[in-house]
Amino acid sequence: MIGLVIGVDAGGSRTRVAVADANGETIATSEREGGAVKPGEIERSASIIAAAVRDALITLDPTLGAPRALCAGVAGVGRESERRALSEALLNESLADDVLVMTDAEIAMADAFGDEAGIVLIAGTGSNSTRETIEMSQAARKVGADGLLLVTPYYNRPGQDHLYRHFKAVVQAVPLPTVLYNVPSRTGCDLLPETLARLCELPEIVAVKEATGSTLRASQILAKTGDRLAVLSGDDATAFPLFALGGRGVISVVSNVAPREFSAMWDAAAAGDWNKARELHFKLLPLSEGLFVEANPVPVKAALSMMGRMADELRPPLYPLAEQHREKIRGMLRDLRLI
To answer: What is the pTM of this model?
Structure first.
């Protein structure tokens, strides 16, 4: 749970800062001349915001304790360049250890899960920049994440030794239990079994989300890493075969729609009841294929909307499921008695 939340309004000619406590009550405010971020002036605007944050924090009631003992977040940060500039400006104000730069959504996530007993929160902090991955991982740890999920760097396509060095740098900087995520169809970067075996030298690397959908690849990984690495399926349609090979779980799309059935398949496999697990695999197979008729998460959000679980809203450039696919998804949900 975040102790204090620092809200920043820099949309006009002045920068206004309000510090709220855990109950949402405003306990300190400040203002500074200078406002909205303009092209070429990100650093200047960040300096104004950081100074306003300092002004607000020094007015806090001393009985609350020193700011250094508090975990605070700055809401309203947009692009990564703005986040980084503000982090550097806070460092210049000697506030780098006191204030964590976060977006509104990140603050909401930390508040929702930070104090829930029994919930293990694994934060997806991977990017195609080692420095950015470390910064996001540090932010996740600061708000209470229990572990990290690190996708392979996308677009810039690092080689195998570069991948090793990237992941090593991250887990050495932020030593939390880490799940690596290999999904070359999305990233254009493939983390090979030999590199995974090498990464097993690092104790923080505990699992891999293997999303190639290849049982051959899963076999190669398991042959090289044995029991050292938990191999998790990242592909619903091939989760059952991976369980049979020795996989230890799945990070699933289908389980958002049919959690009871998908969990039952894993429970049966883990208990050695392969007939039941196989039966559930084939029962869920149409859904495992149907929820990828368009790019994930377009179909799964449509399905959850049909079930009344959420609004069918996506962030462009993704848009709601095409009409020609909707009846197919609806039929699958009816077959499983989910609607």
So the answer is: 0.73
